[in-house]
From TrEMBL:
Keyword terms: Cell membrane, Membrane, Transferase, Transmembrane, Transmembrane helix
Stated name of the protein: Glycosyltransferase 87 family protein
Highest classification ranks of the organism: Bacteria, Bacillati, Actinomycetota, Actinomycetes, Propionibacteriales
Family designation: Belongs to the glycosyltransferase 87 family.
Topology with respect to the bilayer: Multi-pass membrane protein
Coiled-coil regions listed: none
Signal peptide: none
Transmembrane segments: 29-49, 78-99, 105-124, 131-149, 181-201, 208-229, 268-285, 337-354, 375-394
Length: 412
């Protein structure tokens, strides 16, 4: 079980271990649906890809450079891609196997690993449902079409892998060294550092110690492997968000991207006010949901505030919308399955069509958006805020119901 945290000494897995009892079609029909959904996804995905592993090529550059010339890790460039390596030196070591593989095999392995990671994400998101394997396959096939997922696969990104690693480490309370994988994930890509704050506010002290220790371990390994490059990264480059890309680009779905598109400076005063307000409010909500026995919602909220507050959160970073969407469906009472289905269809349909892609993008066209285009162009930010509001309101009503039950029991 998870460590006790917050008031009442509740464990984080309380409600998510209760089977919902939702009926499913026969096994034969579910496997037929799985085959059909998988085939449809395989046909559609190549039609929607246009990046051909660009980020994976940069990862391989990092892996190759740390083997051949570690000091040049952050100055090396590919002939046709000007993007630099932007992760800590430890991440470059993780990418070494991809650098050693031929390109077609490396890209194929990347896609295969991401699909396995997506299975883990879906499985942990639906772990309280008594679902057959075929039903999970249907869900995975559907999630392949979600825009952040298909962009992750197309770019050869690692977002799905990191999401699965964190979900396993936080939601599975049985494995030894729980918290270590959160630290490793943060050592690869800094954004998972936000989950150390979740472990802190939910008083999961042992997991927090493991996470902090593992992260420090990745720093040490990085300095041993590439001392000068690591010093350059941690003293200068880590503060330069501009190396990652233009914050005004529509693909940057964060507070900073929204504000820059409205004409504010990147990292300006308004952003500096919004970030701490979002962090404080979000961690308060994460703690409340955790104490109410909703670990998936708690984790998803924490991930969302990290995405909102990062200077740049590219569209493919938003794979966390999958567990967040499942958490939203669980807000609907279990005795209203059609309402749950409706919430899922709206949420995941929204992610498949990704409204921010419907407006003029790139080359500074974001600065001339109309009000309607601003609403579409900041689609993930708006959806995330709506989800946080729903979870906050329902958590308040749930707390009121619990207090009513406790007070009634005390009067007996």
């Amino acid at each position: 079980m998870l460590e006790k945290g917050g008031t009442g000494g509740r464990t984080g897995l309380t409600d998510d271990r209760r089977p919902s009892g939702i009926g499913l079609p026969s096994s034969r029909w579910m496997w037929a649906a799985a085959v059909l959904a998988g085939t449809a996804a395989c046909v559609l995905l190549p039609l929607l890809w246009d990046h051909t592993g660009a980020d994976l090529k940069v990862y391989r550059l990092g892996g190759d450079t740390i083997l051949s010339e570690p000091s040049a890790l952050y100055s090396a460039r590919l002939p046709v891609i000007s993007l630099p390596f932007t992760y800590p030196a430890f991440a470059a070591l993780v990418f070494v196997p991809f650098a050693l593989l031929p390109w077609p095999l490396a890209y194929g392995v990347s896609i295969a690993c991401s699909i396995v990671a997506l299975w883990v994400i879906v499985r942990y998101s639906l772990r309280d449902q008594r679902l057959r394997t075929a039903a999970v396959l249907v869900a995975v096939a559907g999630c392949l079409l979600v825009e952040p997922v298909r962009e992750t696969l197309s770019y050869g990104q690692i977002n799905l892998f990191l999401c699965a690693l964190v979900m396993y480490d936080v939601l599975d309370g049985k494995h030894p060294g729980r918290g270590s994988w959160v630290g490793v994930a943060a050592g690869i890509k800094l954004t998972p550092l936000v989950f150390l704050a979740l472990l802190l506010v939910t008083k999961q002290w042992r997991a927090l110690r493991y996470a902090a220790g593992a992260f420090c371990g990745t720093l040490l390994i990085g300095f041993v492997a590439a001392p000068s490059a690591s010093w350059e990264y941690w003293t200068r480059l880590v503060f330069n968000a501009g190396r990652i890309g233009p914050p005004a680009f529509a693909g940057n779905q964060s507070w900073n991207g929204l504000l820059v598109r409205l004409g504010a400076p990147s990292g300006g005063t308004v952003w500096m006010v919004l970030v701490p307000a979002t962090v404080i409010t979000g961690l308060w909500l994460s703690r409340r949901l955790y104490n109410q026995g909703q670990p998936l919602a708690s984790l998803s909220v924490c991930a969302t505030i990290g995405l909102l507050c990062a200077p740049i959160s590219w569209n493919h970073h938003w794979v966390w919308m999958i567990p967040l969407g499942v958490a939203l469906t669980k807000v609907v009472p279990v005795d209203r399955p059609l309402a749950r289905v409706a919430v899922a269809v709206v949420w995941f349909g929204y992610l498949i069509f990704a409204p921010y892609r419907w407006v003029p993008r790139a080359d500074g066209r974001e600065f001339s958006w109309t009000v309607g285009e601003q609403l579409l162009g900041n689609a993930y930010v708006i959806a995330a805020l709506a989800a946080l509001v729903v979870l906050a309101v329902t958590s308040t009503s749930r707390r009121d119901r619990q207090q009513t039950v406790y007070s009634g029991a005390g009067s007996l």
